[in-house]
Amino acid sequence: MLKRILLVTFTAAVLACQASPKQQPVVEGIPNIKPAEQQSLVAREVVALIENYNYKKLKLNDSISSLVFDNYIKALDPSKNYFLSSDIKAFEKYRNTLDDDFRNGDLSGPFFIFNVYLKRYNDWINYSISHVKQKYDFSKDETYVFDREKMPWANTAAELQDIWRKRVKYELVNLKIAGTDDEKNIETLTKRYTNLKSQVSKINNQDVFQSIMDAFTVTIDPHTNYFNPSNAQAFSEDMARSFEGIGARLQLDNEVIKISEIIPGGPAFRSKALSAGDRIVGVAQGDGEFEDVIGWRLENSVAKIKGPKGTKVRLKVIPSGQEMSAKPVIIELVREKIIMADQSAQKEVKTVKSGGKEYKIGVIKVPAFYADFKAAKAGDPNYKSTTRDVRLLLDTLKSIDKVDAVVMDLRANGGGSLLEAISLTGLFIDKGPVVQVKDLRGGIEVDEDTEPGAVWNGPFGVMVDRLSASASEIFAGAIQDYGRGLIFGTQTYGKGTVQSSIDLNSLVNRSILQRLAALVNKDGVSVAGGAADMPQLGLINLTMAKFYRVTGSSTQDRGVTPDIVFPSVYPMDKIGEDTEPSALPWDEIRKSTYVPVTDLTATKAKLKELHDQRMQKSEEYKLLQQDIQDMKKRENEVSVSLNIAKLKAERDSLEAKSLARTNKLRELRGLPPLKKGDKSTKEERFDFVEDESLKVMADLMQIQK
C-alpha cells in the first residue's frame, strides 16, 4: 500500500511542470562539475517524499533553506581553511533559495559553491607543495590553530597563507619528531599533497550531489538519509551484513582515517592488534609499497583496505592516544568474508565474592541484534539470530555452568532487528508488550512477546553505554520497566525513530526512466548500470515512525537512564541524539497494559548506596574520573605548539603519564609494571564497569537472600 501511494506521488511530481534551472556560474581555472539530469529528478522527489511522508510533517521554507546552506558550507570547510569571507558573502544569495531550487530540481547554486571549494582546495594544496622545501625554524615559538570552526572566516589570502604555512610546518615537525631525516620528510609530505590533488581530481557529480543531499537531509532529521547509487550499494551490503575485508568500520577524522569500531569475529578483532580510535596512515597490498592515505577520501581509503578474501593487506597505524608524530606500527592482516549476521553472542563466567560468599555470574556479550532472515524464510531450522544464540547460552549457563545470575553486555551495540529486540526480551519475561510504535499518521501499534514463560528467571542485569542505541534501548528499557533487572552504565544514545528504506527506482514508471535515459545519453553523460542500462536514482532512508516504551515514554532523545550510573568515557555533549540539532524531541503517549515482574525501587536505592560507598574508596574509580577529565581537556584544545622541543616534551609527558596510570592499575591488581613500549595482554586488561556491575549484582543477591 505504501509503495502504491509513494508511486502515485512520485510519478505525479515527475510529470509536473518543471522550472528551467538557472545558468550555473563558471569557476575559472578548474573543470567545472555540473549536475546530471537524474540528480535534478532525485532532488525534486526527495523533497516530495520528505514533505509528504517524513514523521515531522514539515514543508520546506526559507528557514530550512538557511539551515541547509549553513550545513553545506560547514561540511565543505569545517575548519575555515579554504573559503575567504568574500566567498561566503558571495554565496549568501543562495541562503534562502535552496528550498525552491530543490523543489524545482535546480542544483546550479550548490554545484557552483562546490566548484569554488574545489578551486580553493587546489590553490592551497599547490601552495603547500611549493612551501614544503622552505626552511623552517623549529625552535621558534609559534602556534598552529588546527580547529578554526569557531573563528571568523579569513578576510585576505595573506591570512590563509599564514595558516597554511603553519599547517605545512606542523606536518613537518610531526615527521621530524618521528625520527626521519629532513630530506625524507620533504619527500613524504610532497607525495602526500600530490596524492591529495590526485584524489580531488577524481570527484564527480555523484560525489557533489551526495554532499548536497547530506546537508539537506541532516537538516530534516539525523536519520533521514539519501544514498547515491554507489553509496546505496554499500548501504545494501551493510544491511545484508556481509563484506570482504579486515572487519573494521572506518571514519574520516581531520583528514586521517580512524577506526571507529572493530567488528567481532573478523581478522582485526582476532589479531588484537587494532583498536577503536587507532589511525591508519598508510596501506600496502601484500608485500607491495605503502601508500600514504592521509588526506584521502574515505571511500578511496576503504577501497584500498577492503579486498578479496584470502589476500593480504598491511597497515601503518598510529595507536589511539598517541600523537600523529609517533612512529607508526605496521600491522599485517589477511582479509576474510565478514558475515555481520554471524556475529554471535558469546558468554563468559565470572566469580564475585560478597558477604563471605562466592557468586558465579554469566556475562553474555551481544554485539548486535542480528538475524539471518533469508535463511529463516527458506525454512532453515538452524538459522542464526540473537535470540536463538542467547537462548542456547542461557541453557548452558543454567545447566552446565550453574550460574547464580546473568548480566547482558549491550555496550556499543548500535541496534539492529526490532523483532530480535522483542523476542530477546521474551527470554526474560513471561509475556506481554515490549515496545510501542507510533506512525506518521498518529496510529500506535503495540508489539508484544507472545510466547509464555521465561528462559531465565534469576537475577539479571544489563550493561549499556552512550553507543547503545535503537534496539538496545528497546530491550534495556523493557527490562527496566518490567522491573526484571538492573541497568548499569551511562545514558544511552537516544535513537528512538524508525526508518523505511525506499529504492527510488522502484517508484518510477519504466517509461519515465526510459525518457530520462534518453535525455541523459543525449547529453553524452553515461548512466549507471542496471536493467536496460537505466539511470539509477539511489535510495532514501525516511524517518516514518517513533519508538515508545511500555510506560509510554519515548526512547528518542533521552534514551535509557541506568539504575547505577557510571562516568562516560564518550563525550556526552558530542555523541548522542540530544546533540543533534534536527533530532525529534522526547515525548510520551499512553502507557501499555503490562504487569511488572517486581518493584525494585527500594532495592535500587540500597544498591546505589553500597555502590557509592565502594566508589569513595576505589582507586580505579578515581583514575577513571581523571582519565575522563584529561580527555575533555584534550578535546577542548584547538591549537598546538610548533616548537619541536616543546611539542616533543608534551608528547613524552603524555606517554609517561599514560604508562604511570597503566602501571598504577596493574599494581592495584597485583600485576608487574610495564616498561615503555610494552603492551598488556588481553587477559591483563581490566574492565572497570563490568567489574563493578558484577559487584552490584552480588549485592543484589545478598539483599534478596
Helix content: 40-55%
Number of strands: 21
Number of helices: 21
Uncertain ranges: 1-5, 11-17, 523-532
Characterize the overall form.
globular
> Helix/strand-derived class?
alpha+beta
Q: Termini distance?
A: 55 Å
Fraction of residues in β-strands: 15-25%
Instruction: Describe the sheet with the most strands.
Output: 6 strands, antiparallel
Rounded Rg: 27 Å
Mean pLDDT: 88
Structure report:
By secondary structure, the chain is of the alpha+beta class. The protein is built from 21 helices and 21 strands. The strands form five sheets. Strands 4, 5, 6, 7, 8 and 9 form a six-stranded antiparallel beta sheet that branches. Strands 11-12-13-16-17-20 form a six-stranded mixed beta sheet, with helices on both faces. Strands 2, 14, 15, 18 and 19 form a five-stranded antiparallel beta sheet that branches. A hairpin with a 2-residue loop joins strand 4 and strand 5 (256-262). Helix 3 crosses helix 9 (205-220), helix 14 (386-401) packs parallel to helix 15 and helix 18 packs across helix 21 (688-704). It is globular, with a radius of gyration of 27 Å. 36% of the residues are buried.
